[in-house]
Amino acid sequence: MIVDIAIGDAYGAGFEFAPREKIERFNTLMRFVPHETGIAAGHYTDDTQMSIAVCEVLLSGGPASSDEFAEAFVRCYRRDPRQGYAKGLQGLFDQSRDGRHFRSLIRPGSRRNGAAMRSVPLGLLASVAEIDQVSRSQAVVTHDTPEGILSSKVVALMVHYALYQDKAVAELARLVERDTGFRLRGDWHGEVECDAIQTLHAVHTALLNNRSTSGLLRDCVNYGGDVDSVAAIAMGVASVSLDYVDDTPDVLRRGLEAGPYGQPFLLQLDDSLRKRFPRLASRSR
Ligand SMILES: [Mg+2]
């Protein structure tokens, strides 16, 4: 799960708000591409790092409270500062001694997709009631808005239905609407802003239109805009769904960054998730 999120994130990161010519030339899955802002090829960004933080809270066995999530977000950033965060948020992380300090500094009024992009692991929670509670707890740390909270819950529910109830991707919109009242669109096209609701529609449309991870990755990037978040979420959902053939090219599977929080760390984290949430082991590739 987390490796797939990281592949989507790192592949998409090279194309985040890139000009159309770059997408047309390099969105071939032949290799990771660097981003002009300084993100090296194969390096993941905030989407994966914050998903790691969410995993660490879920694995800790302690309460999945907003304070615990804040602590994990700050800890993961400070031990491994990396590119890709919104400048304002990164500035707050740089100033924050710990989660409590961070919460005293932030004004969490964002309607952007930051709460959604880290919510795939929340689908590991075994009940919808728990997802409802925990997605809210994590979202409000940075995105205490109806859109921020909803977007976290919708991502977690998509993962949960695919993983625990073997639901087909074509059924996800109906189930999400039943449980949240929110209608996922299946006809998104064009550039995706850093917007919570647009991101949900784009992820869902790409999932509906593909049955392989290679097609999924290419479609996510082809939208243009905030494509690393779209690809990270979509690859995370696909990783637990029975609907997708995993044909992610080896050059991407093997080409993720090394280093202390690179591929070996992510593989180990996936292993820990499979032990803690045995249902995930049934989807392991
Ligand atoms: Mg990112």
UniProtKB/TrEMBL annotation:
Record carries keyword Hydrolase: yes
Domain of life of the organism encoding this protein: Bacteria
Q: Which InterPro entries match?
A: ADP-ribosylglycohydrolase, Ribosyl_crysJ1, Ribosyl_crysJ1_sf
> Isomerase: present as a keyword of the record?
no
Keywords, alphabetical: Hydrolase
The similarity annotation says: Belongs to the ADP-ribosylglycohydrolase family.
Protein's recorded name: ADP-ribosylglycohydrolase family protein
This chain's source organism reads Dyella mobilis
What is this organism's lineage? Bacteria, Pseudomonadati, Pseudomonadota, Gammaproteobacteria, Lysobacterales
